[in-house]
Design brief:
Largest sheet: none
Oligomer: single chain
Number of strands: 0
Structural class: mainly alpha
Length: about 290
């Protein structure tokens, strides 16, 4: 099978399988949590669904790894992620009587599969789809003409990886506010939503810029991927006592990005991109394709 076709099949297949698992498991995990801290068993009951979301995040990582055969799969899926995310964020659900097409689909899905609908809405509003798309798109673009790794580029890559971690947390912090403004308040206000969406878009752009050193070294992708995945695992079942001690908005953020697999989905995708780009670079160096 041609390497390009294999890359496309793996990337598309991983996305089709991984996303519903992430949506379903993440929504059930959040529903199981007791953010107010009234029940000590709440975190334990969220572990099973959170592990399902983590499985979905791991499958999504294969889309990044598809770069090892060709950047085409990552470019295709990454572009679709960004297109859907941009559409969702640009056209907010202001009026339930005249919803934008994409949000109408999300709300229609709620009637048949409420958990999947809730997970889908969260990944769109939190900027998860945008981050996944940017990771795949940048990873694919820089892999079109990979460069040789040097000590300097490895150092730059580490700095870029740490910047990507900060940009991811920045995106999720803004995404929580977008999620509340879109879906919780009941009366979305353009004066509130527009600045939030612009800031979220800027955070995603910074995230993408931080990944550019992947062209020369995969170290930054490994650093960011390990840190984000580690945080996701650490927060997979936050204790109610800890959540209760935090400010309400911080508690809700912690109770979503960990158990819902949002941190892990970005982290594992970055690990896949880094591993795939490294293998592709090794292959190209072996054939003399890297200049």
């Amino acid at each position: 099978m041609p390497r390009t076709a294999l890359s496309l099949i793996v990337a598309v297949g991983a996305t089709i399988v991984g996303l519903p698992l992430l949506w379903f498991g993440g929504a059930l995990a959040i529903q199981s949590l007791d953010v107010s801290g009234d029940s000590a068993s709440a975190s334990a009951s969220a572990v099973g669904p959170a592990l399902l979301a983590l499985l979905g995040a791991a499958v999504l990582g294969a889309a990044g790894y598809s770069i090892r055969w060709s950047p085409v799969g990552a470019l295709t899926v990454g572009g679709l992620h960004l297109l859907v995310s941009a559409t969702a964020l640009a056209f907010a659900p202001y009026d339930e009587g005249a919803l934008p097409f994409l949000w109408q689909l999300v709300f229609d899905l709620d009637r048949a599969a409420p958990a999947i609908s809730s997970g889908l809405a969260m990944t769109l509003a939190y900027g998860v789809s945008a981050l996944l798309g940017m990771a795949l798109l940048v990873g694919g673009l820089v892999s079109l003409r990979p460069g040789r790794a040097t000590a300097l580029w490895r150092l730059v890559g580490v700095a870029g990886g740490l910047a990507a971690v900060v940009a991811t947390l920045w995106t999720f912090t803004l995404g929580l506010r977008v999620y509340i403004a879109f879906l919780v308040t009941g009366q979305p206000d353009a004066a509130v939503i527009t600045p939030l969406v612009v800031q979220l878009a800027l955070a995603v752009v910074v995230f993408g810029a931080a990944l550019v050193p992947l062209r020369w070294s995969a170290v930054g992708g490994f650093v960011a991927g390990i840190v984000l995945t580690g945080l996701g695992l650490l927060l997979i079942a936050p204790l109610p006592e800890i959540l209760e001690a935090l400010p309400s908005d911080v508690a809700f953020l912690v109770a979503t990005i960990g158990p819902a697999g949002l941190l892990s989905s970005v982290g594992l995708t970055l690990l896949g991109v880094a591993a795939g780009s490294r293998r592709l670079r090794s292959h190209d160096q072996g054939t003399g394709a890297v200049g």
